[in-house]
User: Fold this.
Amino acid sequence: MQDGGRILAVANQKGGVGKTTTAVNLGAALASVGRRVLVVDLDPQGNATTNLGVLKNDVEKSSYWLLIGNTDLQSVISDTAIENLYVVPSSEELVGAEAELLDEDLVLKEKRRFMMRDALRGGAGHPFSGGFDYVLIDCPPSLNLLTVNAFAASDAIVVPLQCEFLALEGLKQLLQTINLIKKSVHPTLEVQGVVLTMFDRSVKLSGEVADDAREQLGYLVYDTLIPRNVKIAEAPSHGMPVLQYDPACSGSRSYIKLAAEFLQREQDPVL
Assistant:
């Protein structure tokens, strides 16, 4: 683990692939083994915020305020019910953030792509120094200016990939976009790993997608498979990660396993 912690974007341009579920539950699993984790909800839908038990009506300052540069990081962090796990909540104001950034008369037009990076790091080349081991940015399900900001701020990207038809085609588009971001915005950005989600052993297609992903992407694909699990689906409606909702279910066990594999990739010894 690098000094100053690591920032990772959890992203996929396609919705409904388990992106927010992965950000929230990977964060909870890392927190359960003693890592201080901050989830930044950069999706206007605010599902990560709700999933972590924060009521949107109670949010005074959100990631929107962090993005447009009107506040500092510490003033937008909210506690969760899980020890070591914190969240920068979302708000509906993010819907207009992209248009606002595009309209801003900034000294340097490129600055609008780096607002989140500067908010988290204080500028280019600076490590994250917010007192957290890991920051997980839950991105919108699109490749807009919010997502570009998340990529510019991050050391690496975690990509959830649903085990369904045409999933790999969408992933190819995302990887092409990441390569463009590397060339124009962030040369050292990397894909930390691809997480196979909603895996159903009883469905032949799930196995075929998993096999194809491993064949095409090799080491990038995590060994851990996140199953299609009713407890994972139920947990958000109760305002909690699945590890809190039902620690013994197969979904919770899978995210604990994923966290261990994540830490191995980060060369951060598991406790």
User: Anything to note?
Assistant: The longest strand covers residues 190-199.
